[in-house]
Amino acid sequence: MELLQFIRRGEPNSGNTLTKNIIENKVVGYSKIRQFYSPKYTPANLQEKLTDLKTLLYWNSDVITKNGTADLGFFSSDISGKFYVVVEGIANDGKICLGSSTFEIK
After folding, report:
1. Does this model's pTM top 0.70?
2. Sign of the CA dihedral 44, 46, 49, 50?
């Protein structure tokens, strides 16, 4: 059996380092909030024959709940099949919230 040694190269907290079988990356902060583009559907453009093939149906980085719930609405795409929903967040008391579900478009 071969004994593998792993040696950290460079100064501590200096960023990315690469050692045998290990990649280390220093994460600096969070990304800025981005506005999710959602098409503006009107009776006029609903009659267009362009196929809507988006796979990311909804994204909102600032959902505020009331008593632990929120109502969200969004348009689906023209793709039929099962979609996977992921909800992640942080409560006012710092607790991490995570949930997932699926729904189907026929």
Report:
1. no
2. positive
